[in-house]
Amino acid sequence: MVATLLSAWLVGSQNKHRRKWGFWIFLLSNVLWAIWGWHDRAYALVALQVGLAVLNVRGVSKNEPH
User: Fold this and answer.
1) Average of per-residue pLDDT values in the chain
2) Nearest to 1 by CA among 26, 38, 22
3) Given CB 3.0 to 4.6 Å as the disulfide criterion, which of 6, 33, 37, 51 pairs with 46?
4) What is the rounded CA–CA span in Å between residue 32 and residue 12?
5) Could you tell me if 5 and 33 are in contact, meaning their C-beta atoms sit under 8 angstroms apart?
6) What are the extents of the domains in the chain?
7) Of residues 45 and 58, which shows the higher confidence score?
8) 63 falls in which pLDDT band (50, 70, 90)?
9) What's the whole-number mean pLDDT along residues 38-51?
10) How far apart are CA 44 and CA 37, in angstroms?
11) Average pLDDT over residues 42-63
């Protein structure tokens, strides 16, 4: 939960470097939540984290210069 909150804070930054870190920490939080969901057999939580991870990868790509 702390990783998710920290990443949301960083993604909201106007600093591009902080936003980039925020997206990567979001990916870490997705993995952590998915592990917990798998352990507790909360497969909907795992599916949600996969979907959110896809959106985070999109966010990382949109944050990169073209």
Assistant:
1) 91
2) 26
3) 37
4) 21
5) no
6) 2-63
7) 45
8) confident
9) 97
10) 8
11) 91
The span from the CA of 45 to the CA of 58, in Å, is 20
pTM of model > 0.90? no
Residues 34-56 as b/e (b if ≥16 CB within 10 A, e otherwise) read beebeeeeeeeebeebeebbeeb
Query: Going along 1-66, which residue ranges are E strands?
Result: none
Which one-letter amino acid corresponds to residue 50?
V
Binned at pLDDT 50, 70 and 90, residue 66 comes out as low
**What burial class does residue 23 get, using C-beta atoms within 10 Å of its C-beta: 0-12 exposed, 13-18 middle, 19+ buried?**
buried
